[in-house]
Amino acid sequence: MTVHHAPTPAPDRDDPLADYPDNLIINRPDLKSRPLIFGEQVLTIIFWGFWFYLWLPLISVIAWLLGFRILYTHIMELGGIDNFFAQFDTFSRGVAIASGLLACWSFYNLKRYGSYNRRNKVLPTDIKRLKKEFSLSDRDWQTFQEARVLLLSLDAQGRVTGVQAKDSTP
Q1: Is the bond preceding 21 in cis, omega lying within 30 degrees of 0?
Q2: Distance CA 59, CA 65 (A)
Q3: Each residue of 116-140: pLDDT tens digit?
Q4: Taking the mean position of all CA atoms in its chain, how far away is CA 149?
């Protein structure tokens, strides 16, 4: 026995966010404008650059310990340890500003996208809703529950258009 479900009408294609928030613009790059894509890429490159820049002192220390004296030479050319600490203050301010910018960016993202729960959880099955969704009678439902194999027919959008119970014995 085959049960057919009437196909649901396609969402209005004039409104690209008709399914919002299921199809967030972040999942639909084709809906982003070129300036938005460019801006996101520039900010990503800038912050990756800051991230790399913050690792440079550690990389220099490791290189110095391995025998490269670049850090020592650089400090001595700048006027010794006193001048290093004077510049360390400026460097610390730069790190604080970069950290503040990153914190602001994170806060913006939290405010913009934080309310969307994108984790998928398994919801309990509501038998009444399933029967209504697939236009099933109690008899059909009983048949499907007892079947060992169910064959589903899907349309091009992935919606179920038909269900057929099949016995799996040869």
Answers
A1: yes
A2: 10
A3: 766 666 667 778 887 887 777 888 8
A4: 35
